[in-house]
Amino acid sequence: MSRDRTVNVLTVMLVVLLASGPFLPRWAMFLSTVSLCYGTVVLGMMLLMRTGLVSFGHGLYYCLGAYAAGTLQPFFGITEMSIMIGAAVAVTGAVSALLALLLRKYRDIFFAMLSLAFSMILYGLLVKTSALGSTDGFNVTAETLFGVRIAGTAYERYLIFAVTAFLAWICAMGMLRYLGSHRGRLAEAVRDNELRVEYMGASVANTIHVNYVVSAMLAGLGGSLMAISVGHIDPEMAYWTTSGEFVFITILAGTGNVLAPFLGAAIFETIRSFAYEYSPNTWQMALGITMLLVIMFLPGGLWSLFARTRKAG
Amino acid sequence: MSQLLAVLIDGLIYASWLFIIAVGLTLIYGVMKILNIAHGSLYSLGAYAAASLAGYWFSQGYFDATVAHFGPGYEAIAIVASYGVMALAAVLVGLVAGPLIERGILRFMYGKDEIVLVLVTYALFLILEDMIKLVWGVDPYFLYQPYGLLGSFDIGDLTYPNYNLLLFAVAVIIGAVLAWVLARTRQGKILLAVIHDREMAAAQGINVGLVYFVTFTVGAMLGALGGALTAPMISVQPGIGAETIVLAFAVVVIGGLGSLPGAALAAILVGLVRAAAVHYRPELDLFSVYLVMAIVLIARPKGLFSTQEVRKI
Q: Which pairing describes strands B152-155 and A148-149: parallel, antiparallel, or unpaired?
């Protein structure tokens, strides 16, 4: 794995995205924004999966981030985008740091199920909270960005897109550095053999805790960006099928590289938006079949295709 | 006082329903170590099949014809026949879908990680959900007739349809038959041997493949039966599988994966808690179920009736 090349690819992609943004049709810009949001969430899922954990409840943080950003307006009258995003990351960081105390003792199915329970608790709460719109949710607008009014202006969409792309870039770069660091490399060691990690003097619980919180904060960030770009949030974001989508993209993309989650999210969102338009009743079937094929023939995900050709060439 | 009684009765009715939908799931997990998300789809398949088949039975006037044929005083025969049609729908679904899924897909996956198997069944769930939409469309189906056939009973000033007693009876019968098969018959002992040690059982000459095949088919049938019995109480529409499978998860995980008495106890616990929540604190309705799940998992990480597992290095 050549590290420098990934850095270059990431930066080139950011520049291309930012430069092409103004010329993109509205739907393409929206599609890219949504893909970047999902990619950010899946980046965290990738870290967890490298640690050997599959969470069927990351919708919890995705939804929590969105609601943390969205409820600032009704409760505090704050509509500044940077504060909304910051609040989302802070809230998900705090909640996950607490829950990780419990979750880090769990593995495999039990980890998946306990996270599922937590996300469904949030779902159950939000569905019955009429102050927050119950099942309908409510609308979210970011009026200003660093004090400058963006809502309703001609460049509102582009700015949200640019901020999303920039933040996703930062997250990907940070994740790349983290995965290369001592602690980052421990993740895979924990997945392979916890006992050995402990014998070597490293803490399994600590590694899982930190990675869980990082992945939750990424999900919170993705959720808040999604809330701002879509302009609407509802409890469905915490429902288990949303978490299932994240798991799906992680499996589809593979965990080989920080680019994989964004690639996977882009493919997923593209398929979804087109399939939704042309055959709304079979697109999930296509997803399911793809997932089976990936599990059977490409255990490393789509990314292993790239890795293989690169090695061959 | 009457409210407490209402909680008890509602709780038991709900518990019966929960047990019926969860028992197939825990059976399949116990034997095959697969936490089958596609169980939710089998449930909806059962509901749709019952709605179609029994709907046809009623709309074509077979019910009235049977009543007319046997004359007054023998309506019971027509009523039993109606429920027979619903059960037949469930059995058909189990006999078709069970073998197809097990032979067609799952048998290629045995030996993979439990969490990978969860993802495989998630893919199957996505495929089956769309398949249902393709066959039955997205409009809801109503099968209201069987609900009213049995009349109702009064307790205090509350009226309960007798259909609820049928649910209770079915739950008890399924539980008793399974417990009897496991404890008293040769097949049950073979099953226990496979559960205890798959490889050792195979070495003793037990056809493990056949055991898996039969178990999955029976489990699928139980899932479909749950759906068929639920069809008269709900509007049968897309999404019922996703809603139900998480509840079934909660029950199975609380009871301890793969445990039959655990599932029964968990169903009663969840049923009573939810009924109490609905009566005293309606806003905590769904929330209460997952709260119980989280609390039980925190207190007993492997559920109430967990079996000691040999540590794997």
A: unpaired
Q: Which helix or strand (DSSP H or E) is residue A36 part of?
A: helix A26-50
A195 to chain B nearest CA, in Å? 8
For the entire predicted model, the pTM comes to 0.88
Determine the length of chain A: 313
Our count of domains for chain A comes to: 1
How many residues does this entry show for chain B?
Answer: 313
**CB B135: neighbour CB atoms within 10 A?**
11
Q: Chain A residues with CB-CB distance to B under 8 A?
A: 54, 56, 102, 105-106, 108-110, 112-114, 116-118, 120-121, 123-125, 127-129, 195, 239-241, 244, 247-248, 251, 281-285, 287-289, 291-292, 295-296
In whole angstroms, what is the distance from residue B260 CA to residue B73 CA? 40
Structural domain of residue A186, as residue ranges?
3-240
DSSP code of A24?
S
Side-chain-facing half-sphere of B166: CA atoms under 13 Å? 23
Give the up-direction half-sphere exposure of residue B264: CA atoms within 13 A in the CB hemisphere.
12
Q: Do A109 and B119 touch (CB under 8 A)?
A: no
A263 belongs to a structural domain: no
In a domain, A268, yes or no: no
The residue extents of the domains of chain B are 2-299
Position A310 scores a pLDDT of 53
Tell me the pLDDT tens digit for each residue of A60-101: 999 999 999 999 888 888 888 899 999 999 999 999 999 998
Determine which of B127, B244, B257 to mutate to test the interface with A (most A C-beta atoms within 10 Å).
B127
User: Is residue A156 situated within a structural domain?
Assistant: yes
- Per-residue pLDDT tens for B280-312? 888 788 888 888 988 988 888 888 886 655 444
Nearest to B126 among A114, A116, A284 (CB): A284
Evaluate whether residue A286 is within a structural domain: no
Let me know: does B289 contact A124? Beta carbons within 8 Å. Answer: yes
